Amino acid sequence: MVRQAKAQRILTHDQIWGALDRLAERAGLSPSGLAKRAGLDPTTFNKSKRVTPDGRERWPSTESIAKALAAAGSSMDTFAGLTGDDASDGRSVPLLGLALAGASGAFDESGFPSGKGWTELAFPTAEDSRAFALEISGDALAPAYRDGDVILISPRAPIRRGDRVVVKTKAGEVTVATLKRRTAKALELQPLDASQAEHTMAPSDVGWIARIVWASQ
User: Fold this and answer.
1) Does residue 60 carry a pLDDT above 90?
2) Where is this region: Disordered (predicted)?
């Protein structure tokens, strides 16, 4: 009996480059920005480098793809998913435990996930390409959030009084609270436990602030 070989999917030139473009977008970067973060020449992933002057297709090396994945904190499985025609729907976001969010290197200067420790979580509702998720551990934020809850943070979402936010200070402290007031001189936060006193900090002490747009409750 002759067995038919299972047909293997062959990735095209456009799919590979498209996946790199999506990888950069998910990291909040341009293709050149991703290449620079990966320690490559900034022009490595530029569109002008994808075809030779005589019209031949030029493919990215496996080494450059590996470095790009490391720079974006993504896996090869994630990259494979980005090669599909339907891969631009933002089906996953970076995920980290809240207890690790204050660690040095967990975020870059703009508040985007970086470094080690991040995994990925399927999230069809994530519209912000820079969105990320934090998993609550312990009961410090109860009853608002309990151990194991996941909160989705959108850095691009507008923030208004009364919104629940995540704030990271320049010193590395991460706070989850309700925004009471925000002025040019002060940021006033109400702890999720209403029995606790309000907290005020100077804008100069704030590394970044982002709104919580969803929670798995």
Assistant:
1) yes
2) 33-58
- Cβ neighbours for 177, distance < 8 A, ≥ 6 positions apart: 164, 165, 167, 189, 190, 191, 192, 199
As beta bridge partners, residue 181 has 188
Among residues 169, 203, 164, the alpha carbon closest in space to that of 183 is found at 203
7 pLDDT higher than 50: no
Share of the chain above pLDDT 70, in %: 89
CA–CA dist 208, 169 (Å, integer) = 7
DSSP H/E element including 168:
strand 164-169
CA distance 72 to 80: 14
Per-residue confidence (pLDDT) for residue 122, from 0 to 100: 66
- Cross-sheet strand order for the sheet of 206-215: 119-122, 92-97, 132-135, 150-154, 206-215, 164-169, 174-182, 187-191, 199-201
Model confidence pTM above 0.90: no
* Per-residue confidence band for 93, with pLDDT thresholds at 50, 70 and 90: confident
Residue of 199, 217, 89, 96 lying closest to 153 (CA atoms): 96
Alpha-carbon gap, residue 56 to 152, rounded angstroms = 43
| Amino acid type, 119 | T
177 near 189, Cβ under 8 Å? yes
- Given a contact cutoff of 8 angstroms between Cβ atoms, the answer to whether 211 and 196 are in contact is no
User: Residue 99, SS3?
Assistant: helix
